[in-house]
Amino acid sequence: MKFWKMNGAGNDFILLDNRQLQLPQECFSQLARHLCERRLSLGADGLMVVEHPREDGDYRMIFYNADGSMGEMCGNGARCICRYGYENGLAGEIQRVETTAGLLTGQRIDARQYRIRLQDPSVIRLEDRVEVDGIQYPCAYVELGNPGIPHAVVPIENLRQIPEEELFALGRKLRYHPAFPKGANVNFYEILGPNHIYERTWERGVEGFTYACGTGTGSLAVVLTLQEKVTCAPIRVDMTGGQLVVDAHCENGHISHLYLTGPTNIVAVGDITDEELPL
Question: N or C: which end of the chain has fewer CB within 10 A?
């Protein structure tokens, strides 16, 4: 079985082109759980499947989290899949990708840098508060696309100094908090300087921290732009795996365009020979 292994700012994915493999869709949830298991198989944050388009896109992207659940979309995954699409002749330097959360457009900047326009936010709550273990945390909530990808955005002072196990426990409790009926990706952040943010994201479906989260970074930019804590100029967001850049365009108090730019990396291309593959 042919595969590509890619990452975008450390957010890593296995890519299968089902236009060629022609596997039944019902197998991918189990495949994702198996292939994304680190040490036992290839290991990744998620599985991306390329399919023929159903409407007017160049191709279709189906995304599965590492736990086998289907995700609405993945920002860093979409940037990586745009590179796959360009390098395999599915589209040119500008491409249209169908996702469960709606159509997105991607652009090749150079050999490794790719930019996508994220889906517009369909739900925004800027001034929530949630309680965990008797402590009230200020929190915003955003859903990108329709159906929306749910993101909680939580400011944490001295985020880089918080012990990992403490932050992990808080992320897990917020991820399942009843304030978020769909569950939520939890984006902790601190402001480092003008338009410069540090972020850690606890992702549902991975059930832990990832090195980067594209839609989380976009949601963070939406919140901080509308709260006027950053300007509409490029926003630099540092994460464990590197830096992403977001352009959030605001008109009359509404986000009109949201762009995510960052690096891609082709880690490996080859054949899956896993003898325990559940097929």
Answer: C
